[in-house]
Amino acid sequence: MARYVMKRIVYMVITLFIIATVTFFLMKLLPGSPLQNQEKLTPEQRQIILEKYGLNDPVPVQYVRYLGNLLKGDLGVSFQYDNRPVTELIGERIGPSAQLGFQAIVFGTVVGLLLGIFAAIRHNTWGDYTATVISVLGISIPSFVLAGFLQYFIGVKLQWLPVAFWEGFEYTILPTLALSVSVIANIARFMRTEMLEVLSSDYILTARAKGISNAAVIVRHAIRNSLIPIITILGPMIVNLMTGTLVIENIFAVPGLGEQFVRSISLNDYPVIMGTTLFYSALLILAIFIVDILYGVVDPRIRLAGGNK
Amino acid sequence: MKKKLSLFLVLLLAVTTFLAACGGNNDTAKDKDGSANKPDEKKEQVLNLLETQEIPTLDPALATDEVSFIVLNNVMEGLYRLGKDNKPLPGVAESYEVSQDGKVYTFKLRKDAKWSNGDPVTAHDFVFAWRRVLDPKTASEYAYIMYDIKNAEEINQGKLPVDQLGVKALDDYTLQVELKNPVPYFVSLTVFSSFMPQNEKFVKSQGEKYGLEANTTLYNGPFVLSEWKHEQGWTYKKNPNYWDKDNVKLETINVKVVKDTATAVNLYETKKVDRVGLSAEFVDKYKNDKNFHTFLEPSIFWLRMNTKNELLKNVNARKAIAMAVDKEALVNTLLNNGTVPANYLVPKDFVQGPNGKDFREENGDLIKTDVKEAKKLWEQAKKELGKDKFTIELLNYDDDVAKKIGEYLKEQLEKNLPGLTVNIKQQPFKQKLELESNMQYDLSFSGWGPDYQDPMTFIDLWVTNSPHNQTGWSNPEYDKLVKDAKTTLLSDLQARWDAMLKAEKLLFEEVPIAPLYQRGRAYLQREYVKDIVIHPFGGDFSFKWAYIE
Predict the structure, then answer these.
(1) Closest-CA distance of chain A to residue B110, Å
(2) What's the structural domain count of chain A?
(3) CA distance A285 to chain B (A)
(4) Where is it predominantly found (chain B) (predicted)?
(5) Are A264 and A272 in contact (CB under 8 A)?
(6) B467 contacts A42? CB cut-off 8 A
(7) What is the rounded distance in angstroms from the CA atom of residue B432 to the CA atom of residue B429?
(8) N or C, which end of chain A has less CB nearby within 10 Å?
(9) What are the helix and strand counts (H, E) for chain A?
């Protein structure tokens, strides 16, 4: 096991390095410069400024310099927020994004699982159909439509909850709901399919034949074995939601990280493009790793060390 | 049955736990709402505003964007500031004298101007600040705005040391500025953020952190920032050290960052904010609201034409294009926010000449929509070029409004000029700029806002080899008029003004650009909010005189 973990960590570092390299060179292919007042500057004035930021050096030189700084934990400074360190920039924004993502995942997973289990047990009854309709709607309604809808009816018309801003728990409820709908839908769908398959498998039949109560069969055997695909989708889903979503954060005025993924690219803010990409990749790689470890816990049939018996 | 019941209970439990969590916090929500919901009984001097973006920086040397400029205009003050009528009013300076040749300005500074830490604002703060802006190490993107000062350009290019700059503190309260040319609008330049003073001791003690947080910035304006939560918002408080504090009525201004217009409108509807900017899709809904207002910005949008293109090299073809678009319909149906059709280059309500007349009042409309005439010119152009069918590309921005405008222009041009095919090419902002400056386009939808309060900020764009010309258009007479206005005519302001009027007329004889509109902005503002002053350049708003009634 320890050897396996070590090996995986080495792979993770290599993966991250490849991502950093590819992103760096692709990013340099973006036309335009990171200057904000670019349209008003003459070429000479542009040169003066690019010189100061070392952007006149050949790209490989910039690349080596970037990697050197990266090893020291220095992600550079942003161009759009003049000279603000990228680590600070991500640090300031990740809090709200992570909180929203976490709440949405917890709420979404709990509700999604219950809905999926319910649908599977009630296979082909009105309960099943209702659950299915909910998940289809949840997947097909774009989050911005739902968010706008929630904001308008609950925030403006009913005035039960704040329309937007980020000033306490009650401000997080609407964005959490909006975010969790797709989680609920996805989890419920997977859980239902998986449960149905498990419920019709031989060992469930055996368990029932042994006279174990229906509840025990479902809780002890069926649910546990149905969780594997859920864990698989949960890893990336957690990373996606906790690093912020552009649309929901914009609609509810959440001071999160989501927008930076897009904005830094359209502004050619190189250090922020690199910073957010690496941050996201590192989390994703880590999540996949944890998921792999969890497989072994949930299902002893999966052996991590492979043929290493 | 029992199992069903237990499952139901589990579900119920999960739902109630969640609702309980929400419910528990709802009490505090109500408390907060109670205090925030005061607009009804509003006498306290608190203004609640929105901004579409986080402040990029409060370092006046580095600021380049509208949000920073607005904040700087309210928390800092230069030699002059724009007044209610958009003419420069004394700020830190009390008065100034100009030498006979117009090249040396001597500013007398007031002795009661203070920094928010209690230090006096002195002439040395200006010398330090301006040198810092021009120092190539600062990499200020607006350094060029100071190029009229003696040696400024050379210093910025690293050819001279910063202490060679033509700015001297004769004593603590006298600032002498030597100019390269006698620019007549120099005093109005000093309202611009880049010209604001900086406290040397403070700036140096903060180092890289200067201007990045509320407490790593020093203020000398009507307000200070008491709080700045990144990406979330900031709070202005009245500055007790401000020399003119008796005329500042607002105690607090809360600004929150909201990027989505629908959200902003919802916040206005629920009385969380007092003012909200509207995008085109909301104008129809609120057009008849008593709190609906519009204002005209000095930003002009046009179609730039690449005069090296096989079609657009023909002046009649360019004229035909400029006259074939129904601008009235464009501004009324697509934009609908106070925007007006532009038949000119220099915006209206922007600048007045030595005789006190608005530039537009004198030059009027120079190229108007006239489909019949356009068709005639178009036929003529086709004959001259010996070809019947042309395909050109329209380079466009990639935002929603520009998208609609692009499609409208295509439809108008193709309908009114038979044989013309327009293909739209949308590009992100930076990429579009790059293509334009390399002249890799045929037609380009673009625009310009002023850098200083003088027609020249629009007129000198089109001289030969201007980096902003980008049309390939070149006219020696135009070049000469601009050159004269910038040199020999500086001693005769009326003659200079006339030269600029003439240049604008000349431009539209050859139409390298087809003007489309002068942009307006629509907004809703609660009736108890008074005297927020809107400016045509520099920072867009002044809250110094604003109050709640």
Answers:
(1) 32
(2) 1
(3) 28
(4) membrane
(5) yes
(6) yes
(7) 5
(8) C
(9) 13, 0
B431 at the A interface (CB within 8 A)? yes
Name the DSSP letter for residue B537: S
Angle of CA points A152, A155, A159, to nearest 5°:
125
**What's the domain range around A175?**
101-266
B139 lies within 8 A of chain A by CB: yes
Say how many CB pairs under 8 Å bridge A and B: 158
Cβ contacts of B155 within 8 Å, gap of 6 or more: B131, B134, B135, B136, B161, B162, B164, B165
Establish if A221 belongs to a structural domain: yes
Predicted model pTM: 0.87
Report if residue A185 sits inside a domain.
yes
Pairing status of strand B443-448 against strand B390-396: parallel
Closest CA to A131 of A108, A112, A107: A112
Q: How buried is A142 (Cβ within 10 angstroms: 0-12 exposed, 13-18 middle, 19+ buried)?
A: exposed
Read off φ and ψ for residue B166, nearest 5 degrees: -75, 45
A42 CA to chain B: closest CA distance, Å?
6
Comparing CB atoms, the residue among B10, B231, B435 nearest residue A255 is: B231
Residues in chain A: 309
Asked if the structure places residue A124 within a domain, the reply is yes
- Looking at the domain assignment, is residue A72 inside a domain? no
Helix (H, G, I), strand (E, B) or coil at A293: helix
Q: B62 in contact with A at a CB cutoff of 8 Å?
A: yes
Tens-level pLDDT at each residue, chain B (549 residues): 444 444 444 444 444 444 434 433 433 333 334 444 444 454 789 999 999 999 999 999 999 889 999 999 999 999 999 999 888 999 999 999 999 999 999 999 999 999 999 999 999 999 999 999 999 999 898 999 999 999 999 999 999 999 999 999 999 999 999 999 899 899 999 999 999 999 999 999 999 899 999 999 999 999 999 999 999 999 999 999 999 999 999 999 999 999 999 999 999 999 999 999 998 889 989 999 999 999 999 999 999 999 999 999 999 999 999 999 999 999 988 888 889 999 999 999 999 999 989 999 999 999 999 999 999 999 999 999 999 999 999 999 988 889 999 999 999 999 999 999 999 999 888 888 888 988 999 999 999 989 888 999 999 999 998 888 999 999 999 999 999 999 889 888 999 999 999 999 999 999 999 999 999 999 999 999 999 999 988 788 999 999 999
Best CA proximity match to B46, nearest among B254, B350, B199, B193: B254
B296-521 CATH, one of 3.40.50.2030, 3.90.1150.10, 3.10.105.10, 2.40.50.100: 3.10.105.10
| Tokens 């086709």 -> residue | B382
Q: Are A257 and A243 in contact (CB under 8 A)?
A: yes
The CA R_g of chain A, rounded to the nearest whole Å, is 24
Distance from CA of A279 to the nearest CA of B (A): 19
Question: Which H or E run includes B248?
Answer: none
Per CB-CB distance under 8 Å, the chain A contacts of B157 are 44, 48
DSSP string, B345-359: SSPTTS-B-TTS-BH
Nearest CA in chain A to B28: A170
**Do residue A82 and residue B56 have CB atoms under 8 angstroms apart?**
yes
Q: Where are the domains of chain B?
A: 296-521
Q: What is the CATH number of the domain that holds A159?
A: 1.10.3720.10
Say which DSSP state A219 is in.
I
Which residues between 466 and 525 in chain B have a beta carbon less than 8 angstroms from any beta carbon of chain A? 467-468
Residue B334 contacts A, CB cutoff 8 Å = no
